[in-house]
Design a protein that fits this description.
alpha/beta; 5-stranded parallel sheet; 3-stranded mixed sheet; 11 strands; globular; binds 1,4-dihydronicotinamide adenine dinucleotide; binds D-mannonic acid; 6PGD_dom2; oxidoreductase; NAD(P)-bd_dom_sf; Mannitol dehydrogenase family protein; Mannitol_DH_C
């Protein structure tokens, strides 16, 4: 059925910008933007969006020729729905003119800055949440605070301008998959500001707000085939379109500067006092199994999550992870049945329309493992509970970042620590020294430093991975 653009439900008149979003990627356009558009449709308000890329002009160059309007494609298992999104009024590319973005962020009309800059965009140590002051981008920003490159640098510079202008600060809402994302962001901003100007840091500490939130919608990267399929269905060439599953959830700590925020509850977001149980549930049950399937599934030859869970060995591995190693040590949000939540996750993974590449999810594992897998392992070890499946997932990550798969083919590893991690697997054939070489990466494994027993478990998992391969080792874990 050919749909034309006029058949696509528009969001109505574009609202006046009140928000600047840093990191105009697929997830913002498929999740955060849909909630904002729904909130504005329900309750109005000057909550339009100016998007900012801190890296490249790619997204701007796709959106600008189409007046920043794009299609969000909802992919159900059997059908798809098209929504025309016209919330974004402008897109800026920070490296082209950092001062311009700072000026936009300092404008009184902007009361909220949201972020999806990926886990690595915070320039922090995942194991501790501390700012990496020796990170080249942070070092640059300390030396050039008026022309920053990092998200943290832009936030602090814009807050400084607002303070000097006698304005209220904006609220900063991280929508990245970080544990306690708001508190982590607050710590990083205060650390950076404190090094530049203690008075500024004190003002931010008392006046600004950094609510935590849990975000959830599976949004795979858009492919050329996706774009061609939308042309065929709607007659519209949209290079900025996004593809997403039907499910969405947003749980937000209701803590905004002067209580000033869009009416996100009207869009179905849950405004709560404490996000942490929702966040632990999602990061461990969803992202923990996502990363497990990404590494072990990729090594076993499965290109997507759908392919991996269509393999009975990996479906059973997921079930074992939830039943024996993740859910027993989770305290669920009140009234939540975690077994039903996990079953719903499996249905989401099985959606044949969602081609979510294991390679994409495998990215940046050094920034993801602590909150997705290592924290759960640490809790199991403290409770003296075995967790061989999670330990195998860590061994799978180690093998993956070695840069070579089970057939010796090179893997295009994307990770801030890729150069440091590549080849460790091959350089240490002995399982114990191999485990030691990875456990020495403190920014990743810091939280397990006090768990000496983990070394032996990890060495065993590495040995089994070498002997049986990812699928064979996953099969054996099930049998234990
Ligand atoms: P994407 O690749 O489409 O966009 C990533 C955005 O982050 C781009 O704008 C890029 O320029 C920016 N970025 C990357 N590294 C950066 C850095 N060092 N400094 C500043 N900006 C940087 O990815 P997508 O799908 O939008 O995901 C982004 C984040 O959203 C994820 O890392 C995750 O934290 C969160 N998220 C994603 C979901 C998904 O299914 N895609 C679901 C839930 C959360
Ligand atoms: C995925 C997440 O790419 C990844 O690391 O695990 O982006 C995942 O799709 C989302 O967290 C789902 O809400």
């Amino acid at each position: 059925m050919r749909l034309s653009a006029r058949d696509l439900p528009r969001g109505g008149k574009r609202p006046v910008p009140g928000i600047i979003h840093l990191g105009l990627g697929a997830f913002f356009r498929a999740h955060v933007a849909t909630y904002l558009a729904d909130a504005i449709a329900e309750s109005g308000g000057d909550w339009g969006v100016i998007g900012a890329s801190l890296q490249s002009p790619a997204t701007r160059d796709k959106l600008a020729p189409q007046d920043n309007v794009y299609i969000a494609v909802e992919l159900g298992p059997k059908d798809r729905d098209y929504r025309l999104m016209d919330l974004i009024s402008d897109v800026v590319v920070a490296p082209e003119d950092p001062g311009h973005l700072i000026g936009l962020m300092a404008a009184p009309a902007i009361r909220l800055v949201t972020l999806t800059v990926t886990e690595k965009g915070y320039c922090h140590e995942p194991a501790t949440g501390r700012l990496m002051t020796d990170h080249p981008v942070i070092a640059h920003d300390f030396a050039h605070p008026d022309s920053p490159r990092s998200a943290i640098g832009f936030l602090v510079s814009a807050l400084d301008q607002r303070r000097r202008n006698g304005q209220r600060p904006f609220t900063m809402l991280s929508c990245d998959n970080l544990p306690e994302n708001g508190r982590v962001l607050r710590g990083l901003v205060l650390e950076f500001a404190g090094a530049l100007d203690p008075d500024l840091a004190r003002w931010i500490e008392t006046e600004a707000r950094f609510p935590c939130c849990m975000v959830d919608r599976i949004v795979p990267a858009t492919t050329e085939d996706d774009i061609a399929a939308v042309v065929e269905a709607t007659g519209r060439l949209d290079l900025a379109l996004v593809m997403h599953e039907p499910f969405r959830q947003w749980v937000i700590e209701d803590d905004f500067v002067d209580g000033d925020r869009p009416n996100l509850a009207a869009a179905g977001a849950e405004m709560v006092a404490d996000v942490s149980p929702f966040e632990a549930m999602k990061l461990r049950c969803l992202n923990g199994t996502h990363s497990t399937l990404a590494y072990l599934g990729y090594l076993a030859g499965h290109a997507t999550i759908h392919d991996a869970v269509s393999d009975p060995v990996f479906e059973r591995l997921c079930r074992r992870l939830w039943r024996d190693e993740i859910i027993p040590i989770l305290i669920p949000p009140q009234g939540t049945d975690l077994t039903a939540y996990a079953e719903a996750l499996l249905e989401r993974y099985r959606n044949p329309a969602i081609r979510h590449a294991t390679w994409q999810i495998a990215m940046d594992g050094s920034q993801k493992l602590p909150q997705r897998i290592l924290g759960t392992i640490a809790d199991n070890l403290r409770a003296e509970r075995p967790c061989p499946a999670l330990t195998l997932a860590v061994a799978g990550w180690m093998k993956y970042v070695s840069g070579y798969d089970e057939a010796g083919r090179e893997i295009d590893v994307r990770d801030p620590l890729a150069d440091r991690l590549r080849g460790i697997w091959q350089a240490h054939p002995d399982p114990e020294t191999r485990a030691d070489a990875y456990l020495a990466q403190g920014t990743v494994f810091g939280m397990l430093a006090g768990q000496p027993g983990f070394r032996a478990d990890l060495a065993r998992a590495c040995a089994e991975l070498d002997i049986y391969g990812a699928r064979g080792a996953a099969e054996r874990v099930r049998g234990r």
